[in-house]
Every structure is written in C-alpha cells, then in structure tokens.
Automatic annotation (TrEMBL):
Designated name of the protein: Formamidopyrimidine-DNA glycosylase
Gene3D superfamilies assigned to the protein according to its UniProt record, in alphabetical order: 1.10.8.50, MutM-like, N-terminal
Location of the Formamidopyrimidine-DNA glycosylase catalytic domain: 2-128
Entry's family note: Belongs to the FPG family.
UniProt-annotated binding residues for DNA: H106, R125, K168
Key words of the record: DNA damage, DNA repair, DNA-binding, Glycosidase, Hydrolase, Lyase, Metal-binding, Multifunctional enzyme, Zinc, Zinc-finger
Residues forming the catalytic site: P2, E3, K58, R279
Manner of cofactor binding, per the entry note: Binds 1 zinc ion per subunit.
Gene encoding the protein: mutM
Amino acid sequence: MPELPEVETVRRGLEPAMVGRVIARADIRRPNLRWAFPENMAARLTGKRVERLRRRSKYILCDLDSGETLLIHLGMSGRMTIAPLDGVAGDILGDFHHLHPAPAKHDHVVLDMDDGTRITFNDARRFGAMDLLDTKTAENHKLLASIGPEPLGNHFDGDYLAARLKSKNTPIKTALLDQNIVAGLGNIYVCETLWRTGIAPMRKAGTLSKKRVESLVPAIRDVLSEAIAAGGSSLQDHRQTNGELGYFQHSFAVYGREGEPCQNDGCGHSIKRIVQSGRSSFYCPKCQS
Ligand SMILES: [Zn+2]
C-alpha cells in the first residue's frame, strides 16, 4: 500500500509530464473505482491545462485551468505509469492515442497529454479514487478536511504533537497512525520512527515525556525525507523501465525484520513482531521502552 513517500514520488514523477500540458484526451474506462467517478469526468478533463500538482497527505491534487482540481488517491494497489511517445516526430493531427498500445486490464483511466505522453491509472483492487473538486475549496473536501498537519510542513512541531498526545490513552503506534493527528503516516514509517527514537510501540502516548514526544518530530521528518529521496532516485530510471512511478526498493531498519539482529551498535537483541490494531509492529525490546 503506498505511503506518503510513495505518493510524493508519484507526484514528482507526474509533474514534468503533466504541469503546463493540456489533457488532449481522457479515456474513463469504467464508471467507478472505490466510488463513482464524477459526472462527465472525461469532458471536464479534456482540453484543460494542468497548472499545478500538489499533495495533501496521500492524495494528489491536480489543479486545472478550468478552476477544478482532479483528486487522485492510489488506494491499496493503484499505479500510475507514464509512457512518452519517444521518437515520434510531429503532431499526427493531435491524435496520438492510436500510437500507444491498447490499454491493459485494470487500466481504468488513461490521459493523453497534448505532447502525446500517456498517463495511465491502473488499479487491480479498485480501492483507489478520483474526484473533481472546486480548486478554491478542494482542501475542505470530506476526505481532506479533518486530516492533521503535513509531517514535513511547518505546522507540525513538538508543541503541536505534545498537545495532541497529552491526554491519549492509546499506544503511541496507534496515535501516530491517526490521520487526524498527523497526515499520511503509515505502518512502515511509524515502526521506523519509533525504533529511531527508542520508544516502544505499545507505550501509552499520554505517558511520554515532552522531550521524547519532541524527538519524534525530527525522526518522522528524517524517515520520510530519506524515503522520498530513495523514491527520487528511482524516478531517474523510470524511462528505462516500464514507466511505473512510486514503488521503489528501500531498506528498513526494523520493518519486516522479525528475528533479525537490531541494527543499533552493540545491542545484540533481535527484532520482535507484535500485532496492534490488526497491524504488525516491529521493534527492539531492548532499545525501545
Ligand atoms: Zn536494539
């Protein structure tokens, strides 16, 4: 399931292919994903210039010159691919789409940009979503309105986090996964953050000292920034591979490493896995308390 760094990598990958370009053709190949697509979606996209690609939590917001914003959520299995028309000279009457292979199974939305580049949204499990919003009020959309601050933004700091966690009787792991407290943090990056800060995942959030809570903020930023950087390097070869964005190899210190030795120097303990709220937590029983 894509987490914030993967979504940010997709956004950065789409940016050069879409921003400043006009959507010449929109092929909406089914009526819905997780929810029904908006009415007249193809017509509302066709001929519109993409002015900006933003990200809010795990949503990509594509601002169009029509005053509408295309919201894209990758869900569990959504994938975006970019297929440039390399080596094709000239504009074939503006109709490039015949030059691309026919859409594959699960290619639900296909956007052909005015330079012939094809952007495809493929989603086998169909938990993804797309919607068209008024750009001016896009962040008030029901999916976005109650989401907490961006972990890489200025509103997320030690004072804010301490205030939100102070009265929480839930485990810190659960609190950090709460999208109303902080946007876009998922299971993998919460496990990594807690290991780096030496905080046990089952520790009650409200019992942490202010100092320990404050230590979470730079750790969260570092973990996410490192993953975004790894995603950025994966973008450099997307043209050589299949054009798929956002899924990249990245190594984790504890996530998925049950039974392996803790990577802290001189620790010697092995990583343990427990299940919290139905999800695996990986941690070191010696380094995290
Ligand atoms: Zn350890």
